[in-house]
Write a structure and sequence with these properties.
about 600 residues; 7-stranded antiparallel sheet; binds adenosine-5'-diphosphate
């Protein structure tokens, strides 16, 4: 048996073993090691080296052959371009192998090569120390995954056709191993990133930013293999004057000047509409366009970190902070999946910070509004109370003037206006009283009876306005509710008097009471001016009057319905309105029926 035959048989056996392991093992380092030693021991090469592509850099992952060579080149990082760029220009294509004869090698590349210590021979078939034989490793979809290089071929001769074919088979297996590993990694990354993002999403609803940042830092630290995660949220100077930060495993401790510089970079990116993560590296001398680069570099060097990702915490164009994930020299570069997950984490935190701040604003406004409302109530109560006394005196004296025979038209003008002022002040007093009231004196009341009394009181007013006023007989029985005998009639009076007030001459008003679904109802329907949908939305707010010009010519305060609804609500009921502008309105008061 020749030496080649021995290698051939060995090679095939090794190849068989490699193929089996490539398809069954999940340990990439072990499989690559097996391939590299297989090429050396099975095919007779002195050195076989497999590197894996990380970003744009080839990282030496497995070396077969001489241990000294292995120790020298394992972990070595070479820009991929430097090795594989040659392929297009100077290499001979031997199937999937690439061969660069020593005389074609550009001198500037020699320095980066590992050169074996062998004699240069005159034999034309002899291997020259500067000859290079390698094969780029591709995925099945044509993506570059790594490179396999061999040196010191058997007998120090340029490999024969048959030897190359065997080598090619190992190369294919190395490609498959890298592709399998990449798929596995991608899958497990996706699962871990998904879990981390889910954790961040679960933080929404939180009220405190700082603990949420700490949890986010921990979730990211678990999901992405890094040496350090730092999360920082800037003060917004509106709700929040504090800077928050968290870190894992070490707490965040960048200098204020560094934080400021990063903030300026991110704000600039936001203004340019490119708020995205920036991948930076001391190793590759790449900091994108970050003006904070010198400060970041100094910070990295202090702790021995070499590369990282800076991602904005923000939503749309608003920057609220940032997260930084850092790695050490020996760690791989960040892959696109990782960067995408970090980007999403930044957005998720942005939403969280925005929500927490919005809720704070809401709470503050609510307190302010309550205070304003209390103040308004006090003001109305005080002023109307102060107005009431002189008004009563004016009205009394007007009567005296009339009796004394002063010009009747002037006296009646004074009387009318004083009465109008009196109504306004009474309404104001009612309003402030009912706003402050929490308890009612409840007695059984018949809604039919309330309607009857109300209509009786309005009869003359309706006649002089030329509108018909009718109480529709229901089934005749009473409709009993528990109500305040002073307040509830006020509501019925208000609804009925509004109907009379806002229905022009010739119109019709129908009032009815009934029991329906456990509630007593009073319906007041008119063929009057009607109310636009916009006005209906504000009808029950204090001081609101319809924007309809026709309705505005009729005197009113805009307080009646606000008072009425508050009274209805204090009774556990409500008032609803259905109306068509120009056609008429129907107001319904609903109060729970007496429990019998
Ligand atoms: P006021 O009648 O004193 O202005 P209200 O609170 O009772 O105050 O009513 C508020 C506004 O709702 C009125 O100004 C009026 O424009 C409108 N409105 C109330 N009832 C009717 C109705 N039956 N038809 C048309 N508009 C009405």
């Amino acid at each position: 048996m020749t030496r080649f035959d021995t290698f051939h048989a060995d090679g095939v056996r090794r190849l068989y073993e490699v193929t089996r392991r490539v398809n069954s093992s999940t340990d990439l380092a072990e499989v690559l090691e097996l391939i590299a030693t297989g090429v050396c021991e099975g095919l007779g090469y002195g050195v076989a080296a497999i590197s894996r592509l990380e970003g744009n850099t080839l990282v030496m992952a497995a070396v077969g052959g001489d241990d000294a060579v292995r120790d020298e080149i394992i972990g070595r990082r070479t820009p991929a371009e430097q090795v594989l760029g040659r392929e297009f220009s100077i290499a001979d294509h031997w199937g999937i192998l690439r061969f660069v004869p020593h005389d074609r090698l550009p001198p500037e590349q020699i320095s980066s090569l590992w050169v074996p210590d062998i004699e240069v021979s005159d034999d034309p078939d002899a291997w020259h120390p500067l000859d290079a034989l390698y094969a780029p490793l591709y995925s099945s979809t044509g993506k570059l995954l790594g490179n396999m290089a061999v040196d010191l071929p058997p007998d120090n001769k340029v490999p024969s056709q048959q030897q190359r074919e065997l080598l090619e088979m190992f190369v294919v297996q190395a490609g498959v191993a890298l592709e399998n590993a990449q798929r596995r990694e991608q899958l497990s990354h996706q699962v871990r990133h998904g879990e981390a993002l889910k954790k961040l999403a679960l933080l929404s609803g939180t009220l405190e930013i700082e603990p949420a940042l700490q949890e986010a830092a921990e979730a990211l630290f678990e999901a992405v293999p890094v040496a350090q995660v730092t999360v920082r949220c800037f003060a917004d100077d509106v709700e929040d004057h504090d800077n928050y930060s968290a870190g894992m495993p070490a707490p965040a401790n960048a200098e204020d000047s560094t934080v400021m510089a990063i903030r300026q970079d991110l704000v600039r990116h936001a203004a340019q509409g490119r708020l995205r993560p920036v991948v930076f590296s001391v190793r590759d001398e790449d900091f994108g366009d970050l003006e904070a680069a010198p400060l970041i570099r100094a910070r990295l060097e202090q702790d021995g970190w070499t590369h990282g990702v800076l991602a904005p915490i923000g939503v749309d164009r608003e920057v609220m902070g940032y997260l930084v994930l850092l790695r050490e020299q020996s760690n791989p570069s960040f892959d696109p999946d990782e960067v995408a997950a970090i980007h999403e984490a930044g957005r998720e935190l942005g939403r969280l910070v925005r929500d927490v701040r919005l809720r704070r604003t809401e709470r503050r406004l609510l307190v302010e509004l309550r205070e304003l409302d209390r103040y308004k109530g006090e003001l109305i109560a005080t002023i109307s109370h102060e107005l009431k006394t002189p008004l009563t005196s004016i009205i009394g004296h007007t009567e005296l003037l009339e009796e004394a025979g002063v010009q009747p038209s002037s006296v009646s003008a004074i009387g009318r206006n004083a009465a109008r002022l009196d109504r306004l002040v009474s309404n104001l007093l009612n309003y402030s009283r009912i706003q402050g009231r929490r308890e009612l004196q409840r007695v059984p009341l018949d809604l039919v009876e309330l309607c009857r009394t109300s209509l009786e009181m309005l009869r003359i007013q309706a006649q002089s306005a030329g509108v018909s006023l009718e109480l529709l007989a229901a089934d005749g029985g009473p409709v009993l509710v528990m109500g305040d005998a002073e307040e509830l009639p006020r509501v019925v009076d208000n609804l009925c008097s509004n109907a009379v007030k806002y229905t022009p001459h010739g119109g019709r008003i129908e009032v009815s009471a009934r029991a329906l679904d456990g509630r007593g109802e009073i319906l007041v329907r008119d063929t009057g001016l009607g109310i636009s949908p916009q006005d209906q939305g504000h009808l029950f707010s204090a001081f609101h009057r319809s924007t309809n010009p026709e309705a505005l010519t009729i005197p009113g305060t805009g307080l009646g319905l606000a008072i009425s609804r508050t009274i209805a609500e204090l009774h556990g009921g409500d008032i609803i309105v259905a109306s068509v502008l120009g056609t008429g309105s129907e107001f319904t008061l609903r109060i729970p029926l007496i429990d019998v």
